[in-house]
């Protein structure tokens, strides 16, 4: 009962906190709201017309939505990789980053779920998936696994920070015996959401481009590059706009994680390219389409080569301590890496899986205006949620938000 | 079907043998109703009753709200009340393969009645189950096909496919002589006089695999293999995630990207719940071997329409059937056999 009261008070205080801020903050939230409303309007068009409002067809039946979903699963998973050193290895440096990381994980997961719902032909019938009242094809369907791991991960990542925040809010120290097991669980779970999402594609014998044993490990590597890269950028912004102290040391440690992951990712990329192009088989044809185009159809070429060059440049630059330790350059490199992996793990992975089709038909995919708007709307929603979570979290951490006993 | 009485050659791909031929894992619908219940079924039974409870509560609330609004409205007629009540019940109905016969009848009555209310015409929807000792298979004679596409047209008309997006279950690939079965260079969307010189023709559609990857991946079991080997979709249970489409190596599945439109006078009113009844937007559909015809002992529309006799359909378990004669006497092959999907669709040449 008392916890409930504290929780209610926290919500009330948090509401006051997030509705007050500087002019820049209000403009930021206002712009996000506008983009979200625009996305919702376009989603209503999609609901009305059906998925024909998107650029997807029977030939390329997954597009921008599933691409972004795949990428964001990685972001969500990587955020928690910062948790382990912070809570378990007693590395104080990371502690501030962790709260931000978990906030990022929650918003990324909510975006994932939103993208999946946006991709559904019958979102109203989604209750068919709820175990108990619907039919859940577990364990056969990897999508069923994915629903379980994503929701479980969301639950873990909401409860742990919430517990810590509620304790801090009351001026108490969180009990490690309560949250450390949860932290361990969430780290294993982070790997699981990634592998399961990779298995979703990897398990399809119909699509040789995905049916590749390296897909899962490569998902992990690219996620642990892109996720912490995003965290570094976010931390830089928070440092600039709030009084929240984040040591240079923290950012440098995270940049180390980014570097190693990006290097591993590059090695795996080389391994994949070698396999596809040294001894090309019929199954390499999707890779040929992706990197060189087929029969004059080259829609993905500019994207994938942008991605590869950004990826290679950023990884090489990060490898040098001198360059990496210059924070301003580091932010740019992180941005480059983030965009590179967004392209590569997004439509650079999903779209070529469908091209050429099972009978060799090459028909390309271009997202429609509605689709792009909905996608932007969901990204804005993620940024909006993250801002709320981060602002509340920071206020509690800094002792500005304290529970007052009445 | 067990390994011992298998009627075709298959690769040994270390597939674990399944004791039950039906991939649906359930004992109702098209499957054996007298096999003992396993844990899965028991769980499913419980969930059905939970679902029923959920349905009753929610539907009760919503119909209550609907009744209030329609009784307060002046224009609300009895018909519209009946319609909205039926819509709610349809929305909350269960997965077809888990329905009891009574539930199936009720749902079909609602579908027939709502078509009558909307269009003033009666339709006939069957829920006929698979018959014992029937396993459907299909054979395609590449030497005979001339690419007339009569099968495609017959299929569209028979199965009430969307006319505006020109959805077609069958694709006829026009291949160049001397290139072998080169699907990459084939044209599956030709508009010229056939047979074109120097070309031969080959049709593909859903192959009703014995080990269908599409069925495995569906997160809600909205698609399954019936006991007679037909892979079907429950259009009202499908959530439209299109995972099955990604999993199908044969391009056998189609999605309703928009509300399908069939002119009222062209609607085939002889329908089956799992077959050609009218679909809605946002659900999958595909060839069902014309389940509304084949379960009545007739040939699918494509077989009947083919002017060249290149299509043969029949019961693989009947030793006197034409399809068995073809499998026993012709050099038959299947497409992408190395994927272990075991299509029940064979090609052969004279």
Description:
The complex is a heterodimer of chains A (406) and B (350). Chain A is built from 15 helices and no strands. Chain A has 406 residues and is an all-alpha fold. Chain A has a single domain (2-397), classed as Formate dehydrogenase/DMSO reductase domain (Formate dehydrogenase/DMSO reductase fold), CATH 1.20.1630.10. The radius of gyration of chain A is 22 Å and the shape is globular. Chain B has 350 residues and is of the alpha/beta class. Chain B folds into two domains: 39-122; 133-350, Alpha-Beta Plaits. Chain B has helices at residues 39-72, 78-91, 101-119, 150-158, 213-217, 243-247, 291-294, 301-305, 322-329, and strands at 124-126, 136-141, 171-176, 199-204, 223-225, 231-233, 253-255, 270-272, 284-286, 311-315, 345-348. In chain B, the strands form five sheets. A three-stranded mixed β-sheet of chain B has the order 10-2-11. In chain B, helix 2 (78-91) crosses helix 3. Chains A and B meet through helix 6 of A and helix 1, helix 5 and helix 6 of B.
Break the fold down into its secondary structure elements and pairings.
The complex is a heterodimer of chains A (406) and B (350).
Chain A: H1 2-19, H2 23-49, H3 64-80, H4 83-87, H5 95-119, H6 142-169, H7 176-202, H8 215-241, H9 248-278, H10 285-292, H11 301-319, H12 321-324, H13 327-345, H14 347-354, H15 369-397
Chain B: H1 39-72, H2 78-91, H3 101-119, E1 124-126, E2 136-141, H4 150-158, E3 171-176, E4 199-204, H5 213-217, E5 223-225, E6 231-233, H6 243-247, E7 253-255, E8 270-272, E9 284-286, H7 291-294, H8 301-305, E10 311-315, H9 322-329, E11 345-348
Parallel strand pairs in B: 1-8, 2-11
Antiparallel strand pairs in B: 2-10, 3-4, 5-6, 7-9
Helix pairs in contact in B: 1-2, 2-3
């Amino acid at each position: 009962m008392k916890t409930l009261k504290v929780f209610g008070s926290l919500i009330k205080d948090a509401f006051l906190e997030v509705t007050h801020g500087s002019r820049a903050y209000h403009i930021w939230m206002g712009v996000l709201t506008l983009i979200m409303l625009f996305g919702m309007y376009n989603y209503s068009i999609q609901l009305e017309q059906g998925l024909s409002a998107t650029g997807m067809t029977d030939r390329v039946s997954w597009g921008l939505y599933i691409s972004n979903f795949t990428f964001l699963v990685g972001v969500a998973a990587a955020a928690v990789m910062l948790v382990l050193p912070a809570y378990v290895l007693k590395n104080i440096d990371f502690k501030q980053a962790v709260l931000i990381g978990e906030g990022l994980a929650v918003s990324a997961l909510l975006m994932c779920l939103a993208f999946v719902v946006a991709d559904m032909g019958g979102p109203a019938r989604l209750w068919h998936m709820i175990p108990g009242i619907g039919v859940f094809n577990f364990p056969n369907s990897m999508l069923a696994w994915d629903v379980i791991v994503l929701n479980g991960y969301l639950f873990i990542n909401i409860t742990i920070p919430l517990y810590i925040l509620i304790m801090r809010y009351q001026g108490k120290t969180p009990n490690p015996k309560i949250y450390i097991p949860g932290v361990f669980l969430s780290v294993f779970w982070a790997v699981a959401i990634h592998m399961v999402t990779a298995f979703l594609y990897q398990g399809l014998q119909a699509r040789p481009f995905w049916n590749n044993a390296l897909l899962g490990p490569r998902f992990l590597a690219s996620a642990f590059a892109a996720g912490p890269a995003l965290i570094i950028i976010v931390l830089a912004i928070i440092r600039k706009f709030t009084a929240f102290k984040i040591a240079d040391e923290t950012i440098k440690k995270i940049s180390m994680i980014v570097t190693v992951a990006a290097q591993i990712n590059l090695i795996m990329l080389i391994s994949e390219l070698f396999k596809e192009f040294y001894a090309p088989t019929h199954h390499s044809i999707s890779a040929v389409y992706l990197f060189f185009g087929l029969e004059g159809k080259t829609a993905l070429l500019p994207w994938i080569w942008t991605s590869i060059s950004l990826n290679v440049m950023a990884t090489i630059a990060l490898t040098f301590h001198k360059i990496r330790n210059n924070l301003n350059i580091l932010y740019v490199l992180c941005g480059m890496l983030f965009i590179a992996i967004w392209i590569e793990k997004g439509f650079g992975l999903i779209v070529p899986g469908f091209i050429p089709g099972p009978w060799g038909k090459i028909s390309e995919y271009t997202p429609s205006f509605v689709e792009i708007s909905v996608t932007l709307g969901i990204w804005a929603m993620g940024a909006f949620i993250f801002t709320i979570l981060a602002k509340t979290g920071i206020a509690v951490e800094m002792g500005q938000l304290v529970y007052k006993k009445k | 079907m067990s390994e011992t009485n298998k009627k075709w050659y298959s690769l040994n791909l270390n597939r674990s043998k399944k004791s039950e031929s039906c991939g649906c894992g359930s004992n109702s619908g098209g499957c054996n109703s007298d096999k003992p219940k396993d844990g899965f079924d028991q769980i499913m039974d419980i969930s059905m009753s939970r679902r029923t409870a959920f349905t009753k509560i929610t539907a009760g609330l919503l119909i209550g709200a609907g009744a209030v609004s329609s009784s307060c409205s002046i224009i609300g007629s009895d018909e519209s009340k009946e319609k909205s009540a039926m819509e709610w019940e349809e929305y909350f109905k269960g997965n077809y393969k888990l329905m009891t016969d009574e539930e199936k009848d009720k749902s079909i009555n609602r579908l027939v009645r709502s078509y009558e209310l909307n269009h003033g015409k009666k339709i006939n929807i069957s829920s006929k189950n698979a018959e014992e000792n029937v396993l459907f298979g299909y054979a395609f004679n590449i030497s005979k096909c001339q690419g007339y596409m009569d099968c495609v047209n017959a299929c569209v008309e028979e199965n009430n496919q969307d006319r505006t997006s020109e959805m077609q279950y069958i694709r006829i690939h026009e291949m160049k002589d001397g290139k072998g079965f080169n699907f990459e260079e084939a044209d599956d969307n030709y508009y010229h006089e056939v047979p074109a010189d120097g070309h031969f023709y080959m049709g593909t559609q859903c192959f009703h695999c014995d080990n269908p990857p599409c069925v495995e991946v569906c997160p809600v079991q909205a698609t399954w293999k019936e006991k007679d080997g037909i892979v079907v979709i429950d259009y009202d249970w499908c959530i439209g995630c299109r995972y099955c489409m990604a999993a199908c190596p044969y391009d056998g599945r189609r999605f309703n990207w928009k509300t399908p439109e069939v002119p009222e006078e062209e609607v085939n009113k002889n329908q089956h719940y799992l077959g050609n009844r009218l679909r809605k937007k946002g659900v999958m559909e595909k060839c069902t071997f014309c389940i509304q015809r084949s379960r009545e002992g007739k040939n699918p529309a494509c077989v009947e329409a083919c002017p060249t006799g290149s299509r043969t359909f029949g019961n693989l378990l009947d030793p006197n059937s034409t399809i068995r004669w073809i499998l026993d006497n012709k050099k038959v092959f299947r497409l992408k056999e190395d994927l272990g999907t075991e299509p029940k669709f064979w090609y052969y040449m004279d």
